[in-house]
Amino acid sequence: MTDNNNLIVYCEIEDGRVADVSLELLTKGRVLASNLGVKLEAIAIGDNLKDIEKQIFPYGADTVYKVEDSRLYPYTSNPHAAVLINLFKQIKPQICLMGATCIGRDLGPRVSSCLHSGLTADCTALEIGPHKDPKTGKEYTDLLYQIRPAFGGNIVATIVNPDCRPQMATVREGVMKKEVFDPAHTGEVIDLKASDYVADTDFAVEIIDRHIEKSKVNIKNSPIIVAGGYGVGSKENFDLLYELANTLGAEVGASRAAVDAGFCEHERQIGQTGVTVRPKLYIACGISGQIQHIAGMQESSIIISINSDPDAPINTIADYVITGEIEDVVPKLIKYYKKNSK
Fold it and tell me: Which of 12, 80, 158, 276 has the fewest CB atoms in 10 Å of its CB?
């Protein structure tokens, strides 16, 4: 295999299914690869990978590398890292994307460290563009802009990696949109032998048993979300949000400040350090609108902000703003919706 300069996505696989975050990255990768005029590739590592490419090709992949071996599932650090490191040395992709999941957070740094390539974690946007080095004056074209909030969210940083390859980035689930490129799209499958990439000693760690607890909260797919921030004031006041959510058939979400204050559990946290949501209606209660929170909900179709501060930053992106105290406004909403839903 020769240098291909393509864009590659590492696909996470659990129980024979490609993870949503990987399909989201393939969707984004397809756009970036087309911009660059290169192929979109995917790599699937694990066991029982028969027909896994049928899940991947519709998202626009031109090539799927498959590395199948019973020892490669479930995920362990060294074998998966070895496959990527040794394969990338052969094919030299210019960009590698992976999910900012517990697997991606473990795998990405190992691969980038070994290949001396650098890595930007938790990107909220990825674009292709030029760059001029202010020190040397050297000009670059077609670099990956790795965009993420920085300095506690006070700025949005655009990070570039001019000289080292691959340019690597991780992205959280839900940040990018998952869209089928073409249901009939197909490409090339390249089967690789695990023993050509992984030393036997890398299999020293074996998983004997594991337990995965599925989240009981399905906030990501809810069409209506009532979200509370630190401004809600207390756990008791959050009960008002649950009451409003029950009236509307909605889910309750929270900002990081509300979760840190103990008003709500972490699995309901929305934003850069929580989940990204795209509901039809987002009701933000007592949320000031830090950039990390806005990154997680700005693509909501309609945003209603309820806040005692008329100058709260979230009001600038809200479609409707209600200025007032949560304790006054929310019970009125509940009463109104109950009356009009009969």
Answer: 158
Flag whether pLDDT at 2 surpasses 80: no
- The three state secondary structure string of the chain is CCCCCCEEEEECEECCEECHHHHHHHHHHHHHHHHHCCCEEEEEEECCCCCCHHHHHHHCCCEEEEEECHHHCCCCHHHHHHHHHHHHHHHCCCEEEEECCHHHHHHHHHHHHHCCCCEEEEECEEEEEEEECCCCCCEEEEEEEEEEEEHHHCEEEEECCCCCCCEEEEECCCCCCCCCCCCCCCCEEEEECHHHCCCHHHHCCCCCCCCCCCCCCCCCCCCEEEEECHHHCCHHHHHHHHHHHHHHCCEEEECHHHHHCCCCCHHHEECCCCECCCCCEEEEECCCCCHHHHCCCCCCCEEEEEECCCCCHHHHCCCEEEECCHHHHHHHHHHHHHHHCC
The reported pLDDT for the residue numbered 281 is 96
135 C-beta neighbours (distance < 10 Å), count:
5
Q: Name the pTM for this structure.
A: 0.83
